[in-house]
# Entry
Amino acid sequence: MFSQINPQLIRNLEKLGLTENEARTYVGLVSLREATAREIHELTNVPRAKIYEILKVLAKKGYLEVRQGSPTYFRAVDPKQVIGKIKDEFINCAIESLDQLNELSYELPKTSSVWCIQSDWGIKNRIREILSGVKEELIVFSSNPEFLKEFEPELKNLEKTCSLILIVNELDRFRSLPFEFRETTKEFTDFLNNIVIEGIRYDEEFFMIADGKVSIGVHRAGNKREAVVIKLPIVCYMQKMIYNRVLEPSFVKKER
# Structure
């Protein structure tokens, strides 16, 4: 039965643009090689009332071939050819969309200075975007060595071109990274480890201030990671003052 087919395969085909029933129908037909609509329905459990319309759509897309008769038989086109066709269409669509998006230019009366990002990819992409524009000074705080390590190449490059200040809450956890660090006070570390709002624990993982103009803070609220980007120089200045207040007085260098 269809339940034996890898459900991840169906999800992957959905990501490539097929509906769930289209994916189930195509996978079923690949399994059967050649079959009637009734046989496909019995294998995949795609509703019988929809199977003919779905087969018609897949034929129009070029994913299957039809042999007219009584009954009519259907045969799946080689998956390598089908996936290749989808890949080419996807790439062409992506390139065309990017070109069209780059042509857009609208003047807005006012843009927001505060943005929230709620996907890991979006958060890391925005951090790298900010890092690429640093000119003079970068202040970074981290309580998560693994997260900080993802930006090691960018930080190593900035170490040569700007004033780079790296702050951590527990120095011993960051000794594997090839940087010089400053460490926060025990009071600040204790504060970070005990942030609970309305029963939800907040873990501040990463904070960055770039050239005193833009900051991004990354935290976990329960199991959900999110980030807040602020483009207000006065707020960035106040944030910088806070970090100056919570540092241990001595500058801690990594042993080389």
The chain has two domains: 2-91, 114-245. Confidence is low (pLDDT under 50) at residues 251-256. DSSP finds ten helices and eleven strands in the chain. The CA atoms of residues 28 and 44 lie 6 Å apart.
